[in-house]
Amino acid sequence: MSTMKTPDISTIEKVLDNEATAEEAKWVVGWFKTEEGMKWLSERMDKDERQIQLGEEQEWVNHEIPSAVMYQRINQQLRRQTIRRWIFRAAAILIPITLFIGLFVNVNNQIDLLASHEMEEIVVPRGEKMRVIFQDGSSVYLNANSRIRFPKKFTYKNREVELDGEGLFEVASNKNRPFTVVLDRMKVKVLGTEFNVKAYTEDQDISVALNHGRVELSSGDFRPFELSPGEKAIYDRTSRLCKIVRPQDIAESSAWTTDRIIFEQTPMKDAIQTLSRIYDVTFSIDDKKALNYTYTIKTRQTNILTTLRELEKISPVQFHYDRDTIRVNIRK
Hints:
Layout: H1 9-16, H2 22-32, H3 35-47, H4 67-78, E1 87-88, E2 93-94, H5 97-111, E3 119-124, E4 130-133, E5 139-142, E6 146-151, E7 159-170, E8 179-183, E9 186-190, E10 194-199, E11 205-212, E12 215-219, E13 222-227, E14 232-236, E15 242-245, E16 260-267, H6 268-279, E17 282-285, E18 294-300, H7 304-313, E19 317-322, E20 325-330
Parallel strand pairs: 7-8, 17-20
Antiparallel strand pairs: 1-2, 3-6, 4-5, 5-7, 6-7, 7-10, 8-9, 9-12, 10-11, 11-14, 12-13, 14-15, 16-18, 19-20
């Protein structure tokens, strides 16, 4: 018999809820590997003999378990302190207790029941784009001049990232473990969907465009609400008001992912800010009257000179390269 001190039920529950200290976590996991711990697990498994759903057996034998399935099993079986016996129906063979310990370690390696709070940060320079794939299979395609922070491993209870910039998210569905994008003054809670977020710190507005699925928006400035597919939420940082619009084509919100530039009644100030990010160039407004103009145009992202020539065709504004700066004037 092991001489390791037996942890109390409340400590075990704290570990499974990801609320334990590092010392408590090491204690409980270590105890699970002792003879006494294995016996305790075995007895708990005997209390509730439930079987794997027919057709799911291979997920538990010699296979890496999908994180969503792992989470559901852990959440339903361990967190409620009902550790069930898993039966391999096809061969009618009980999965041994040692495999259960292996599953626990495998789960912790992938979704980190005992997660640390270490964060990763990725910064996309101006003029570039980047795709980031998270450990749960979710991904985000980041636009130029964007910054994202995320934990090295998502925790047992949730998946949360922080964004400053623009990104098209594709989130792996898991209703019991929501995915949250934290923005300045707003949060986007996701259950499994595709949506575009634009939240650059220097921009007046934050926008969330839902292509399909479900998202819930929350902020200290308004009551939480859900967006429907095809809707776009626009939050004004100054007025702190949020409005919902339904664009004719919601996909245009993420047109940047296919190298398209779309301006819809876009003020000059916002247009050159967007072009600055895309092409990594600097603009200087020599004539303030240029700021009175707006642009409505759809074009391909080719090179900066071609794009500027197109803008000059629909306004009296003139762009001129001066060393490393593009100077903006009214055509005379």
